[in-house]
Structure formats: C-alpha cells, structure tokens
Design brief:
Structural class of chain A: alpha/beta
GO cellular component, one term (chains A, B): membrane
Oligomer: homodimer
Distance between the termini of chain A: 9 Å
GO molecular function (chains A, B): beta-N-acetylhexosaminidase activity; isomerase activity
Radius of gyration of chain A: 25 Å
EC number (chains A, B): 3.2.1.52
Shape of chain A: elongated
Number of strands of chain A: 16
Largest interface: A-B, 75 and 75 residues
Protein name (chains A, B): Beta-hexosaminidase
Number of helices of chain A: 20
InterPro entries (chains A, B): Beta_hexosaminidase_sua/sub, GH, Glyco_hydro_20_cat, Hex-like_dom2, HEX_eukaryotic_N
Chain lengths: 545, 545
C-alpha cells in the first residue's frame, strides 16, 4: 500500500515539476494556473545566431505543444489565474563557443501572469532553459497552461558530457535520421553526439585524402555522408547545443580499409574462422608492423580533425585481437628481426603515433577503455577514457587519474537483448538481456567512487546504439525513451537535493509525459507500458511486500 | 568451411527459388533470364470481386517492385532471352467463401517469353500464386526481370491456419495499422488475423448491446473501432484471403467490464497486491457465481458472432485465477449454500454456457489451452485449442483428439525479450529472452507427434504480439520479419521434398530479400544483420567447427 499511497498526489493534477525531464536541480512552485496566450512572444537580448535559431524553433514547438499528461486524461480545462504573454531571455554573453567546458546553467521564472524570464550565462544555457520552459506547458481541453505557478527554477547539469553514440557503419542512417536524433537529444538536454561513423562493415563518410574508402566501401551512392553532410550535422547540432565527436576506430575494426588497401590490413576477412580474429565478422586490423599503416591512420586523423571541429577526437581502440597479428607474416618477420619487439610493443608504438597525431592537431584524444587497461601504452593524461566492458572500469579509470565517460554495456548499450544476429545461430548475444529504462535509470556512474577529486573525473555518461540489428527503420524505438532515462542521471544526478536516490517508481509518470511529448514532436519513442498504466499512477507496480 | 562453401552458389546470382518467401512446395527452373515488360497485363477468367481487387492491387505492386537482392548488389543488368508480357489467371470457381477449409493451392508457369499462366481452384489460391509471381520479379540496373526461367511452381500450404495475433487492448492501434498488417500478412501468405480486441486495460470496440463498454473503457474517442471499422477490416482481410477471428477473452482479463458493470466482476483492480489475483494489473474476472455474468458473456457472444463473420470464434479462457473467486463474497455465499459446488464446478458451468452460446450461433469455438488442461470442463470436440504455455501442450492436445493451433510463448511470442514493464521493477519478464527469427524458424510444431492422424490435428501456427510494450510506433518492427519466419514453417513445413530440415543458414538470404521487399512495400520490418552480411552470404555465420 505504501508505494501507491505515496503516488496518489500525482493523480490529482500534473504540476510543473511533473512535466520537466530531466528534473531541474531546484524547482519551487505555487498553486496557480496560468494560461498561455496564443500570441506568446519569445525574445532575447542577444542576436547570436544560435539564439535566433532557437527562438524560431521553440516558437514553433510551443505553438504546437499539445501534451496532456496521460494521468490527467479526465481533467477538465482548468480556470486560469493569469496569462503568460512573453518569455524574455537574458544571456550573459553572445559567445557561441561550444565545448566540454561550456556553462549550461540557467534560471527560469514563470509568474502567475505577465512575462516569464529566463537567464543564462551562455546561449547554450539559454537553450536548456528554453527546453525546460517548453516542457512546462501542458494542454487541457485544447488550451495550453502552466500549472503550479509561480514557478522558479535554478538548474545546471551534473555531468558535462551527456552523450548518445550512434554506429552508422553496420547499417546506414540517412542524414535526416541523425538530425531527428539531434532534435530528440535536445529535448532531453543531451549535449554530445558521438558519431561512430565507420567500422569494419562500411565507410560511409567522404575522404579527400583516401577517396577510395568511401567510393569502394560505402554501401551505396545514396548511403554516404559528404563533407557537406557532415558540416550540416555539426551546425545542426551546435544550434541545439550538441557537440559532435567523431570516432575513427583503430587499429581494430578496420577490415573496411582492406577493401581499398589490403596491404595495410592484417587477418583480412578470415572465413569461416573469423571468431579467432575479431569480435564479429569481417575481421581485419591495421597492420602494426607496417609504417604505412600508422601513416595511413595519422593521415586519417589529420584529415578528419579538420572536418570535425570539436576539441575531442575519438580514436577507438576497442576489441583489438592479438592473434590477428601474431599470425600475420609481416608482423612475424618484423618480430623475427627485432628481438626486443613484441606484439604489445608494436601496438604501444602504434598508439603513441595516433595519440601523437591527435595531440598534433591540438585535439584531446578519447578512446575505449582497452587502450588504458589492456595495452602497454600509457595514453596522454588528458585522454578521455570511455568505459564499456565492466562497470568497475569507471573507478579504475579515475583512480589512475584519467577522465571517464561511462558507457557500461551491461546498462547503457541500447542494442542489447535482441539475441544473436549470426545467420546460423539460434541463441542469445553476449550483451543480452534488453536494458529496460528502469535498468538504465538505476545505473549509478559514481558507484564505488568516494574520493571527491576522483568523482570529478567522471565527466560523462553515454548510451550507445550499435547497429548490427538496427537501421533507419528501427532507430527511434531503440533510442527513445531509454536514452532519456540516462539523460536524467547525467543532467540531474542520482539524488534529489536531500540526498534521496530517485526511484523509477517516482519518476515514471514524468517519463511517460516525456515519451508522449516526444511522440508529439515526431520522435518514434516506444511505449513504456499499457496506456492504462500511464493513466493510473501506481497501478502497475510490482508489489514489493 | 563446409557451410560457407555450401552457400557460395547464392553469391553468383539470385534465381527464382531464392526470391520466394515462403518457399513453394515444388519449384523447377531453367537458366534463362526474362525481362518484364512495363506493359505487363494481369488478367483472369473470373470477375469475382476478390480477383478484380487483386488484379488491381498486384498490378500496382509489380509496377513498383524495385527489389535488388542484397547479395546481387554488384550485378550488372543481365541480358534477357525473352520478354514477359502478361499473366493469365485461370480460376476453377468464382466462389468467394473463405474458411479453414479453403483450397489455397495453385500452379504457376513462367516461360522464357510470352505469357505466364497461374492456375488455381479458388480465388484465394490465385491470390497466393499472385504473391509468388510478384516475388519472382527482381530489379537490376533499374529494369525488372525474372531469372531462371522457365519457372514451374506447384504449391499449397502445409497448415490451414497461419496466423498473427494482435492485442489491441493494452495499447491501441489505428485501423490503418491493422490494414498495413494485413497487407504484410498477404506478402507472407498468412491467412488468419486473430484479433485480441479487448482485454483488462481497454475496450476499443463498439458494443450495441452494452454501449457503456466502449464509451467508458476505450482509451479515447479516437481510439475506438466502430462496427464500420470492424466490417472494413474484415472485408480488407477477405480481399487478401485472410480470415478475421475475434477474441473476447473470458472469464479472466475482464477488469474492463467492471468499469461499467462492477457488480459482474470479482477482485476488481486489487491494489497493490494484484499479483495474487491476476497475471498482470488490473485484476478482475467475470463473477462465476452470478447468473448475470454468464448472461452478459453469452450476450457478448451473441452480438459479436453477428459482427464477426468467420466460422471460428475465440473465447479466451487463459490465465484464470482461482483466488480471485475464492475470496469473492458472492462466490463464498454460493458455495456455502451449495455443498456439491466448488470454484471448479462453477467455472465448468460457466464454460459450458459460453461454449454453448458459441455453438448456438453455429460457430466453432477456439480457446487457449487452459480450458482443456486446467479446468474440469470438457470442451466440444470441434473446439480449436490454442497452446501457448508449454510446447508439449501440442502433442497433449492432439492426443486428446482436439485440433491444435501452436503459439508457444517460448518460440512464437513476439513481444518477449523486452524486460519488465512494471514501473518499479528493474528486471526481466517471464517470457524473456527475445525470440530471434532463427529461433522462431527452428520451432517445429510437429515435434513429438508421430501418429499421422494426430499430426493432421495440428491445423495451425500463430505468432502473437501482446501489447504491453508496443503500440502504433513499434508495431511493424515487433512483427516483421519475424512473423515471416513462422509463415514459412506454416506454409512450407519444416522440410524440403527430400525430407531435409531447412536451416536458418540456408534460408537467410531469402529472408533478407523478403525483408527488403517488405520495406520497399511500406512495412517497417527490422533489419536482420549488418547490410554487409546480407550482401556477403556465408560471411556472418558462427563457426561451428
């Protein structure tokens, strides 16, 4: 009875706090209801392009917002104590630089009547506040209101890097899919699009240094990303306060390079025994015994560090297979002639070159955890380590003094739970089961990290959609609203101001609201439950006593 | 090496047999290639409405067919030895009766040049042949061909009932979704739409006998099925050779009736301890101690046996909870006054009344397996038993002399593998894991049934999509192409003519073709693999040695 009783308050009416996802750091509100004038005007004290674009975008979003929270489906149109005619946005600077250090804080005041005021130090903080403002608006009887006015919000994120990774190589996604994903990310205050743009299976992105890569290994002429496409994605993202971090995963996952440069790649598509040489077919790794392979890798970094403008550049480094090299004739010949060399020293030399190339381009390197934990190489101290294999890799990373972005497969891999995709295999996959939104929500990136300096090294969280079993048809359903569950952890942390760890039971109605809001905005987010449950808070709990 | 070598033949060219899903009983073909004239004319010797509609439908489908099998992505436009200008359809009867007994056989001959001929005893056999004909057509270099001509096909289904169940009560699906599902079913020669139209959570369908059911318990005014909608679905289905079997699930799953008639329902929405009274919330069963509840049930059957025209009428009977009644005051009072009565005799009496009502309307009853195995009632011998709990229920059903439709949850429940949907539950669900297409394909409905008379009692197979975690946003990806995997078992059986059990490795390329064909026809079927795998047959096998 306890849980249901605690939630009864939500049944009566959805108040401001129940509408915003992720939940703001501080929200106080009154008991009045304010109607939104159809002529609501958004204005700002800056003419920065990002803000101009956002005013136009949010004017349209707000004009169309028709969300009635499902739990309020029987509520009649309320009587309003006042009218809101405008939102004034005050930004401290018109600088449009977007980076890991960008201040995203904002304050928002919505009075019972008159003009709401949004204040932020940066245009990107203002974007976050605009999203919050748009989420305060609910619809009853065809009219729009903000309930629980006056509302006062002070908000800022807990983590600076709040990301979504999309693999566009196993299967291709049109640019429109990526832009829709960026829209959806902005609705959840996510700020990093980690573009796992190439992999063993295809090379969709244009290369001007190595044009054969795209020409030979994109899936089709209409399954490519041109320079112009990439620049369009980056500017679309920046307009939403989202950084684009590209990943060129090396030295593993490089079969695709062998389609153009077979001489640079070891264990090229070993069949049928690919499982001895790679995590999945087709096998192939850059040949670490060949200087030309490292030069190729450095050339790629040189080219793409110009195309991709973010300070952070991801060079992969996951799932490297030793046997691939141990059996390679060139590697064997090199080792035979260099008695102090081993596969491990060759790999460390390779990493030194590619991380050096990243530094040479004044970029900060980012890599999967294996580079730190499963190689003899010591990455530069500013390298951002993305952990995925083990949740304990997070405390281990920060204990070594590195910054960590948490992407544990056991909690944050959105593709898991779909069983095997190997043609002849009637069985599961290594990362089953499916990660429910509750499981994602309950993951704590700070678990087992108590030292405050180490906790600060946990700079981010990222969900990942690997695309072996996903393409344009399935993208939204895999991504949403589960990425939103992570987004609240990343923006709001695990606890409220009193230190109470939020539970899925407490936040479910807000997430229902967010799911239906996203569907209303054109995102194909999957349903969490029968609509009956969304309408009857507390009605679909597993009894715990 | 064995498996890959065996598949190499598929790489060279996709021949007719590689294009048709489900695979025909007999297909012989030559080595020629025939081009399809843009002016291809379909004609028939009957003016039956079903055929007239099909000619127009398939003319459009064929005109738009642009499937290039993924494994053929590098093939140039072939040179054709002849041209196909027409398809003549010869039907033995213009009778449009559609039932479990309808003959769906056909023969199809496609010559190298000239006119193809499709012959069938019934218009529905002709529909199946038309679908096969449309699937022979592939596109290279923007032109359409049939490869491997002349083609001769003799085909008929192994199972008479090849179904898809959709639950439209946990979450609602617009009529357009149902019609699109019927389209997709026709592309896979499926012939039964089992409409699980109401359940505890909502009552979307109009009732003229009990109008409050829909008015009070549909989710919204725009989330309803009117009589006209239902009639539209039935006629749309019939035009595609698909029967519509409605299910009104009783006496369990009836909370929804209690929203209008609380006096007819026991254990109405027990909270928070619903798990003592029902498989999922909200709890509620028709009160078997009350004659009015049985009369209500018989009234429903009376009404809907008029609206739904198929001979078979499904009355549910699954997941009945004894405690719900044992604690019901009316049941307790009745039992106190009737010393020979028990909950089991009351339930058997209830079943006798509702099965009697079905017989009274000259319908054949269909029910979930519990009625046969977990009650003291003996259903009429013509009742079709749908098994789901245990795969061994199929041999048990036919050993008792009943006809069986196989829907084992462990293989055929399409919603499984999505984890718990209970608000506060960070865990799995009873029917995890996800059923991959390979798992579905490998299920054998005839396992452990050797007696030939008993094997004939296995009349059908049905996949089921329960909608706790699905709605209009996710329908297609849950359903397709996995329902197609079942469709091949149901149409073609488990073995080829030589008795060889087909393996997923052998059929994967055809299923890729079918998936891309369906996407081309507007069905959001999910991808099976990276496109690289679809293009490189044998490249994504799990090594078995």
């Amino acid at each position: 009875m306890r849980i249901v009783a605690a939630l009864v308050g939500l049944v009566a009416c959805t108040e401001a706090a129940a509408s915003v996802w992720p939940i703001p750091a501080l929200l106080t509100n009154g008991n009045s209801t304010t109607s939104i004038q159809n002529t609501l005007v958004l204005s700002s004290n800056t003419t920065a392009a990002v803000m101009k674009d956002a005013l136009s975008r949010y004017t349209a979003i707000i004009a169309k917002e028709a969300l009635t929270p499902p739990a309020d489906y029987k509520l009649a149109r309320p009587s309003a104590a006042g009218k809101l005619g405008s939102l004034a946005i005050k930004v401290g600077s018109s600088d449009e630089t977007l980076s890991l250090e960008t201040d995203e804080s904002y304050t928002l005041d919505v009075p019972v009547s008159g003009e709401a005021v949004l204040s932020a130090k940066t245009v990107y903080g203002a974007l976050r506040g605009l999203e919050t403002f748009s989420q305060l608006i609910v619809s009853y009887g065809g009219s729009r209101f903000i309930t629980g006015t006056p509302v006062h919000i002070e908000d800022q994120p807990v983590l600076a890097h709040r990301g979504v990774m999309l693999d566009t190589a196993r299967n291709y996604y049109p640019v429109a899919d990526i832009k829709r994903t960026l829209d959806a990310m902005s609705y959840n205050k996510l700020n990093v699009f980690h573009w796992h743009i190439v992999d063993a299976q295809s090379w969709p992105v244009e290369s001007r240094s190595y044009p054969g890569l795209q020409l030979n290994s994109s899936y089709a002429a209409d399954m490519r990303y041109s320079y112009s496409d990439v620049q369009g994605v980056i500017s679309y993202a920046q307009a939403r306060g989202i950084r684009v971090i590209p990943e060129f995963d090396m030295p593993g996952h490089m079969y695709v390079v062998g389609e153009t440069y077979p001489e640079l790649v070891s264990c090229l598509n070993k069949q049928p025994g690919w499982d001895q040489y790679a995590a999945e077919p087709p096998s192939g790794q850059l040949n670490i015994a060949k200087p030309a392979a490292a030069e190729f890798a450095m050339g790629l970094i040189g080219e793409y560090a110009k195309l991709f403008t973010d300070k952070v550049f991801h060079i992969g480094g996951d799932e490297v297979n030793r046997k691939c090299w141990e059996e390679d004739p060139d590697v064997k010949a090199y080792l035979a002639g260099n008695s102090s060399a081993t596969v491990e020293t060759l790999l460390a030399d390779f990493y030194a070159k590619v991380h050096g190339a990243v530094e040479g381009k004044e970029r900060v390197g980012m890599s999967w955890e294996e580079t730190l934990f499963h190689s003899e190489y010591t990455p530069p101290k500013d390298t951002i380590i993305q952990t995925w294999i083990d949740e304990q890799s997070i405390p281990k990373t920060v204990a070594k003094g590195y910054r960590s972005v948490a992407s544990p497969a056991a909690s944050y891999y959105l593709d898991c739970g779909h069983g095997s995709w190997l043609t002849n295999h009637d069985g599961g996959s290594w990362c089953d089961p499916f990660k429910t939104w509750m499981h994602i929500y309950n993951f704590d990136p700070w678990a087992n990290v108590t030292d405050s300096a180490q906790r600060k090294l946990i700079i981010g969280a990222e969900v990942a959609l690997w695309s072996e079993q996903s393409d344009t048809v399935t993208l939204d359903k895999y991504m949403w609203p589960r990425a939103a569950a992570m987004a609240e952890t990343a923006w709001s942390g695990k606890t409220d101001a009193s230190g109470h760890v939020r539970t899925t039971g407490e936040v479910a109605q807000r997430l229902h609201n967010q799911r239906f809001r996203m569907v209303g905005r054109g995102i194909g987010a999957e349903p969490l439950q029968p609509l009956w449950c969304a309408r009857n808070p507390g009605g679909c709990f597993l009894p715990t006593s």
